[in-house]
Amino acid sequence: MSRAEDRIRYLYRSALAYAGEGVVVLDQDDRVIYWNRAARRILGTRGIRPPVPLGQLAGAARKALSAPCEGAASDAGAPERYVRPLHGGARAVYFSETVPARQRSLDDVQGERMAAAGQLAAVVAKEIGAPLTAIQVAADYLITRECTGSQRAAEGLEVILSQTRRIALLTQQLIHLAESGKPHVEPVDLNGVVAEVCDLLAKPLEDENVEVICELAPGRLLASSDPDHLRQILVSLFLNVRGTLSAWTGDRKICLDTGEQDGRLFIRIAHTGPGISESEANTVFYPFVRREQRARPSAGLGLPLVRHLLDELRGGVRCFPNRGGGAVFFVTLEKWKDA
């Protein structure tokens, strides 16, 4: 093969490798001799390297590649495929992902990226912890001992101290996000914890002209949860809503209710204020995502921590637009098995 031909083949393989559609090539002996990244993702065959006999693949992948005839062939719920004969008895199978399948793959990639970013951020946070503490101690010493006669110098050092405290809080949030620890799961009185958090935060919110309405379901709702993690989840959600309402000049209201739906317990927090789009609602749980309407500064780590804690509890959380403006956070938890 000439160098020019080799170069052309290389370019073709590179183009196929990163194509959005799946491409699989099988030889005359029904061995997979090539598949691109999209095909591995669609078929769920990551980690398997060709050549590989068709019979050694899992059932769904084997079935998807077995159609011998030319033309389109697809089953309900499966990705569309097109089979084309090649020279010498080989064949190529082309896959076109359905929109839901493609969205799932994009979500997987985004989740992997965010997890890696969180771990890296936690490492960085630990590394800057020691020098940050040294700066705080030095600034505090200068304020109390060396700058008693200079108000301007003291004010400048106060700015340094306040900003280092803010950075310290951010680094602690980063570390907590990556190393929150396994929860201690036990039967938890859902209404009791919710009422406790509402009582804790209602007064500070009322001082900011935010009305809090708490409507608990009748009876005792026993959740399979960790009481400390559940309190942290609720506080983080309340603080997020507080930040959203801080710049809102209209009706400022938070409505919270509990109940049971589809065999699981739920906590719903709905608030007024600036609306949220469907696209924003899908990204609010990613780290470092901050909404532009907020007047209060935010590191963008509160909601990712909420989702992380709920994942540990085998729960879930969704965000969607509220009718008439604002947003709704819908938290679900498993019922205690003996409840």
Task: Using brief descriptors, characterize the structure shown.
six-stranded antiparallel sheet; 339 residues; alpha+beta; five-stranded mixed sheet; 21% strand
- Name the average pLDDT: 76
Helix fraction, binned, reads 40-55%
Number of helices: 9
Largest sheet: 6 strands, antiparallel
The tally of strands reads: 13
Topology:
Elements: H1 3-17, E1 22-26, E2 31-35, H2 37-43, E3 52-53, H3 59-65, E4 71-73, E5 80-85, E6 91-96, H4 99-146, H5 151-178, E7 186-189, H6 190-207, E8 211-215, E9 222-225, H7 227-245, E10 253-261, E11 264-271, H8 278-281, H9 302-312, E12 316-321, E13 327-334
Parallel strand pairs: 8-10
Antiparallel strand pairs: 1-2, 1-6, 2-3, 4-5, 5-6, 7-9, 10-11, 11-13, 12-13
What does this structure look like?
- This protein has 339 residues and is of the alpha+beta class.
- Helices cover 46% and strands 21% of the residues.
- It has nine helices and 13 strands.
- The chain has helices at 3-17, 37-43, 59-65, 99-146, 151-178, 190-207, 227-245, 278-281, 302-312, and strands spanning 22-26, 31-35, 52-53, 71-73, 80-85, 91-96, 186-189, 211-215, 222-225, 253-261, 264-271, 316-321, 327-334.
- Strands 3-2-1-6-5-4 form a six-stranded antiparallel β-sheet. A five-stranded mixed β-sheet has the order 8-10-11-13-12, with helices on one face. A two-stranded antiparallel ribbon has the order 7-9.
- Strand 1 (22-26) and strand 2 form a beta hairpin.
